Amino acid sequence: MIDEKLKSVYHDIVSRSAAQEEFHQATREVLETLGPVVAKHPEYLHARIIQMLAEPERQIIFRVPWADDTGQVHINRGFRIEFNSALGPYKGGLRFHPSVNLGIVKFLGFEQVFKNALTGLPIGGGKGGADFDPKGRSDAEVMRFCQSFMTELYRHLGEYTDVPAGDIGVGTREIGYLFGQYKRITNRYESAVITGKSTEWGGSQVRTEATGYGAVFFAKEMLAAQRNTLDGKECIVSGSGNVAIYAIEKLHQLGARVIACSDSDGYIHDPDGIDLDLLKQVKTVDRQRLTAYAEQRSSATHHTLGSVWSLPAEVVFPCATQNELSGKDALNLAKNGCIAVVEGANMPCTADAVEIFREAGVLFGPAKAANAGGVATSALEMQQNASRDSWEFGYTEDRLAKIMTNIHDTCLTTAAEYGRPDDYVTGANVAGFLRVADAMMAFGLV
Ligand code: NDP
């Protein structure tokens, strides 16, 4: 429920952003937790900080023309939402997926502002992307698309201005093409203008693993707070991209067993535990579908019907995309003995799913907190670039683990302080909000 004092704020947001459902969903979830904050600090209401926070500082929408290998011309739409720079340069990934539209990029950018604040690092929030589908495209086509995209975007970027990274459909290959074009246009080797780079040319150790590893570190802390561990737990990780693969890797290292993962065509069930080397070969080397995994592993079955969430598991990590876990899925999981849900993807659980987990007493780690390891390690990449240094894997992983522990503890302390003990959603929203709001108050009307 949104507090009476904040209802008009929400109505205003909805009326000013018609048909942007994901953005409404993300802002609503935050407003539902800010009632106790404005009761304690009416100065935020007076200064209209929440309205300011919900309005991006700048929105850039642009045409991206490119030609495929047959010479046919395609026109895509590019976006960069520079949402909030109160705490540092805009920071957030680029998503290349046919579903990308303004409402999706705005929801991602809004979430990013809070997430980045929670890391405690000096980064503002932004997000971008294009409705381009890299699936099935040759390397040359992806390169031409990335070059055209950057030919417009470069003028808005800078180490102290706006620093993009990867997201769905944007991995090291795409970051390489994007950075190469930036370097060519500007004639500057400005490493810290983009993160997620290969470690061969300015990237950070652990950045590839960071979001998945970070989500598992967060889960480990959530369970530890209940005097429990991941050791021996049966888990499901949805998706089979960057976040999913490294969540599976860290879960296996910590003694858990992942029995299922998915892609947009279906899911695989492998009761013996996912063979990670095979999964990496299929998804990242061969760039194939999960059916290829099932064909090469006798213990696994591939399912195109039904949901991966119909399987029983104790701890689950939705790591594919927004709204992939519905209320019905949540009921199934709770009924099947699930004790914790940790969001690796951004907003993968629908609002009613989150409510069902809350009512059933299932621990719930929201994306803003649980998947902040990726952007936190991006900020560590910027630090290394600024000092022309590169850190060892173990040292960087240790920094990531400490950041995740801090985020976890901040969420718990803040939730208790604002009257909702153990509610990580409240803890993450309120702690993130306070850090950004205080900086905005200090800067005045800018
Ligand atoms: P990838 O592109 O590497 O992988 C995405 C995975 O999700 C793929 O397996 C893909 O399957 C699946 N997927 C995508 N869209 C859909 C859909 N509509 N329905 C079902 N499955 C889908 O992306 P990432 O792993 O990087 O990102 C996953 C999530 O994590 C996103 O929500 C992203 O915003 C979030 N995230 C990522 C961070 C990062 O560092 N990469 C940082 C923080 C959050 P298929 O191949 O069939 O499309």
Automatic annotation (TrEMBL):
A Gene Ontology molecular function term for this protein is: nucleotide binding
The protein's UniProt keywords, in alphabetical order, are: NAD, Nucleotide-binding, Oxidoreductase
Family of this protein: Belongs to the Glu/Leu/Phe/Val dehydrogenases family.
Q: Catalytic residues per the record?
A: K127
Read off the lineage from the record. Answer: Bacteria, Bacillati, Actinomycetota, Acidimicrobiia, Acidimicrobiales
UniProt KW Oxidoreductase keyword: yes
Subunit structure, per the record? Homohexamer.
Top-level taxonomic group: Bacteria
User: Which amino acid positions bind NAD(+), per UniProt?
Assistant: T211, N242
Give the encoding gene's name: gdh
User: Where would I find the Glutamate/phenylalanine/leucine/valine/L-tryptophan dehydrogenase C-terminal domain in this sequence?
Assistant: 204-444
Name of the protein in question: Glutamate dehydrogenase
Q: Which InterPro entries match?
A: Aminoacid_DH-like_N_sf, Glu/Leu/Phe/Val/Trp_DH, Glu/Leu/Phe/Val/Trp_DH_C, Glu/Leu/Phe/Val/Trp_DH_dimer, Glu/Leu/Phe/Val_DH_AS, Glu_DH, Glu_Leu_Phe_Val_DH, NAD(P)-bd_dom_sf
Which chain positions carry the site (Important for catalysis)? D167
Q: Which GO terms describe its cellular component?
A: cytosol
Q: Which PROSITE patterns match?
A: GLFV_DEHYDROGENASE (PS00074)
Tell me a GO biological process for this protein. glutamate biosynthetic process
Name the Pfam families for this protein.
Answer: ELFV_dehydrog, ELFV_dehydrog_N
Q: For binding substrate, which residues are annotated in this chain's numbering?
A: K91, Q112, K115, G166, S378
